[in-house]
Amino acid sequence: MERYLRRLGRDVWRSVEEGPHVPVLTLIQTDGAATRLGGGQPTMSRPTKDDLDKMETDVVAFYEILCGVAPDNFDIIINCKSAKEIWDVLKNLYEGSEQVQDKKLTTALNDFNNFKAHAGESLEDAFKRFNLVVTKLSNVGTIRSNHETTLQFLNGLGRH
Questions:
Q1: Dihedral, CA of residue 143, residue 145, residue 148 and residue 154, to nearest 10
Q2: Which of 38, 62, 137, 155 could be bridged to 108 by S-S, CB 3.0 to 4.6 A?
Q3: Are 23 and 47 within 8 A, CB to CB?
């Protein structure tokens, strides 16, 4: 989803990472003549074209994420007000907190480093199981070189 949103544009991804754009509006005093006639109420400046463009991009980001959410998760994000808020909720749902992510990383590294083929396990089954370990490692953001992966697999086969 991140790649898709980035492909839609830099500002779409900005909206997801930083939250919605909030234009800076200033208080404008009306001229003295209007004040003397009783119509001199201060007003707020209008958003600039850049502000309006960024606010429109925020809407695009919000609806693109909303449309990409599985129906099962829709109830979880229904009250979110921005793309960033939806993203944060989904990220926590799928990736977990930092503590959960650390535990997943530690588990994946341990599984990789301690891989051993089971007695009587076919080479194909051992390779499938090892491939899952490498995929789990990749999913937590750790990529091993082909050389290192191959050596770890071969060492895990032992002397059968």
A1: 90
A2: 137
A3: yes
φ, ψ for residue 43 (rounded to 5)?
-125, 165
Total domains present in the chain? 2
- Could you tell me if 13 and 69 lie in one domain? yes
- Residue 35: which domain range? 2-95
Which has the higher per-residue pLDDT, 63 or 24? 63
Which three-class secondary structure state does DSSP give residue 43? strand
Q: Which amino acid is at 2?
A: E
DSSP state for residue 71 in the 8-state scheme: G
pTM confidence score: 0.57
Q: Give the residue from 3, 89, 14 showing the smallest Cα distance to 55.
A: 14
- Burial bucket for residue 108 (CB in 10 Å: 0-12, 13-18, 19+): buried
Domain boundary, last residue among 95, 126, 143: 95
